[in-house]
Amino acid sequence: MAETMQFDLVSPERRLASGEATSVQLPGFAGQLTAMPGHAPLITTLRPGVLSAEMSGGAIQRFAVVGGFAEINASTTTVLAEAAYSATAENRADIEAILEDARAKAANAEAEHRDMAELIVADIVQLLEDMV
């Protein structure tokens, strides 16, 4: 089994990361998961949360992601995020704006969609707490 895998993180605006990683922790829809070289093929939707990639040199890269998809296989992890930012204080205002939009959508959601909309709000609040 290889010791690294190709990791790519892209958002509609730009490519945020690309390189060899030893592991990628991401907020999958069904819960946190870790992709490593040799991982079984998987496609998952993402919840808002912190994505953490340990790069081949040992550096840890942290990103705030808000929705999207991840495709994982034995040699690559590709994340297509609806919105993604470096998980730093400088990007906090961007996430707060997304939170306000999510709160407005939850307040106006039809009854059958309200629980999911409120879960997204809770996930974004947790994301803000988890950001450094």
Q: Could you characterize the architecture of this molecule?
A:
By secondary structure, the protein is α+β, with helices and mostly antiparallel strands. The protein contains two helices and nine strands, in the order βββββββββαα. Strands 1, 2, 3, 4, 5, 6, 7, 8 and 9 form a nine-stranded mixed β-sheet that branches. The longest helix has 20 residues, at 111-130.
**What string gives the helices and strands in order?**
EEEEEEEEEHH
Distance from N terminus to C terminus (CA atoms, Å) equals: 33 Å
Please state the CA-atom Rg, rounded to the nearest Å. 15 Å
The strand count comes to: 9
The amount of helix comes to: 25-40%
What is the 3D shape? globular
Question: Residue-averaged pLDDT, rounded?
Answer: 95
Tally of alpha and pi helices: 2
Sheet/helix structural class: alpha+beta
Show unreliable segments.
Answer: none
Query: Main beta sheet: strand number and arrangement?
Result: 9 strands, mixed
Strand content: 35-45%
Brief account:
Helix content is 28%, strand content 42%. By secondary structure, it is of the alpha+beta class. Strands 1, 2, 3, 4, 5, 6, 7, 8 and 9 form a 9-stranded mixed sheet that branches.
Secondary structure layout:
Layout: E1 5-10, E2 15-28, E3 31-35, E4 42-45, E5 49-55, E6 60-65, E7 68-72, E8 76-81, E9 84-86, H1 92-108, H2 111-130
Please describe the structure with a list of short key phrases separated by commas or semicolons.
132 residues; alpha+beta; 9-stranded mixed beta sheet; 2 helices; 9 strands; globular
